Amino acid sequence: MRNTTVMNNKKRKILLIEPNYKNKYPPIGLMKIASYHRLLGDDVKFYKGDLKDLVVDELFEECLVKLAKIDSSINWIQKAFFIKQFIKSGKKHFIELLELKETRYASLAIEVIDEFSKTFRKKNYEPFWDRIYVTTLFTFYWKITVDTINFVKPLVNDSSQIFVGGVLASLLHKELEEATGIKPHQGLLDRPGMLDPNIKEAKKIIIDNLPLDYSILDEIDYQYPTESAYFTFMTKGCTRKCAFCSVPILEPTYKPKIETKGKFDEIKELYGEQQNLLLMDNNVLASPNFAEIIQEIKDMGFVKGTTWEEPNQLEIAIRNLQNHPNTRAYTKRSFRLFHELIKRLKGENQQFAYNVLDDCQLLNFETTTKENLIKAYNELKDLNEKYRIKSKKLRYVDFNQGTDARYVTDEFMKLMSEIPIRPLRIAFDYIGIRKQYENAVKLAAKYGIRELSNYILYNFNDKPEDLYNRLEININLCHEHNIDIFSFPMKYIPLFGEDAKHREYTGKHWNKKFIRAVQSVLNVTKGIVAPASKKEQTSFFHKAFGNNIEEYFEILYMPETYIVYRSVFEKTLGYTDIWKQEYQSIKKSKDWQEAKGIIESNDFSNIEERTINPVIREFLRHYQIQRSTLKNEDKEYMTLKKQYDKLIKSDRFIDLTLTYDFEDEQPTIKSKKKIIQLK
């Protein structure tokens, strides 16, 4: 935002908060709001992490001022870690580690630090900010979002200056206001003066049109998996009104073309050229300007086969440290880049660089200063230029929200093939669009687009067999057209009501056991259903979900531990065959309906209280093997997991597709006694 700052009457302290959930994309809304407040000359800080640490950091800054007045001969910055730990915990051990006993004003300094610790633990601190923004994402992050909003209330001078926006805020606005007392903003910031109607300069600014402030991402420790990429939109909204989708509510007006090139050029100039282009459009193919959009993408440097060389990141960081208002971010970024440089160097060069950082007190972040970073750069810039990464990499374009198969034409697919799209995401939300979907895949293959990806929505109005059929269609299309389609089954969660606030919703044709079974299958692959490699005779899909519908339903009813650790329970212990025999037998008996109801509830606690039928009790012993850690490791499971971990690490675009709706919890055999009973 250089040379464009407009000062308002008072420089405000602004805090931007993203709740500490795990997510894959940076908060675009907050990045625009950061740009907005910098235009108004405000001081902006972004935070994502443990909010207690945020308060400790602010108290430490105040404490530091007082300690410097007490004894300026002590380098209190070097003792920052132990001071912060004492403020947070109150444990005297950290006071001892400060080694203040021999200093003249030790007792007074300790008294001050202790007061700040009491202030933190009693929550008696004064507000630190004039305004706080909290972004929200998925509705199932309800609890952490509400907790975050309530936590920051004491941190702002006036609670009316807490602004909450985003997906959850727009969908559950009434519930959120009831839970927090804060009235959230609904929808986009797409009109001038929406946040500051009384500030003259603000009346000229449409926040939604501003370029993103990428600098805020360097203020936090959390790493989004996007790496080097431009984030932007070519269109806004969607022409569809799908009942399972929030877009018609969040972006009710479809905009077939929005200005992008100017923002792209500004980001390129300020932050350096990015490798990839991630487009967040919800239905780009619906635009009558699609040919124009493709041409603009090409004009931005994204033509099929083009390569990218990473710019000199340290040079950019130091330049922005000197010119950009976000000194905090570029101090942290420059520090990190210096230490990455040391790791790349060897021998005398490494020792020289280490000595420079040591002399400039840049070995620890607590002692790092802007001046010393610039000083170190002047000594190490030639070394950095010589040894920085200069290998060329292919550039990619990703319409990350997916494309609509119903709008695909031969002409559109030909245009798409002219840009380095990877992967091409085509939605396959329900079986009813099979014909259009298969046609879109066929056209992609025709024009040489060989890596595809899609979300497979389930648990909505679909039936369990619909999920199997759509996954199998993808497997067959891979073989038919010699392409790769990576499927990502995505569980539907309602947009409104209590069921929107968690991940436990069960669709009308599904049950808790079936949902759990699908998640168990996907757990090992972090949600991916990949095509078979050339070396494999059978795809993961058929191994995991069965060779036909009958086997698929058998797996859905199978005990959870038997699903995940197939090899142990099938080959080593032989339990799976025992279960299958008993399953087929009880299915044909009068006991099945009662047993079926218990299994589908996925609650196997207190079986003795739920049924008096000895046959059902005997059969349900299979389901009482609890999950946590399997002592007898399943080698096939671990091998497959390693394959998928490698796949994800080697392909950032697969990582970006993960929904994080899988579990880290693994099954365990509860006791040897239970194993013996199954024999």
TrEMBL record:
Recorded GO CC terms: cytosol
Any one GO molecular-function label of the UniProt entry: catalytic activity
Entry superkingdom: Bacteria
Required cofactor names: [4Fe-4S] cluster
Entry keyword annotation includes Iron: yes
Record key words, sorted: Iron, Iron-sulfur, Metal-binding, S-adenosyl-L-methionine
Keyword Acetylation recorded: no
PANTHER family: ANAEROBIC MAGNESIUM-PROTOPORPHYRIN IX MONOMETHYL ESTER CYCLASE-RELATED (PTHR43409), BLL1977 PROTEIN (PTHR43409:SF7)
Name of protein: Radical SAM superfamily enzyme YgiQ (UPF0313 family)
Species of provenance: Chryseobacterium defluvii
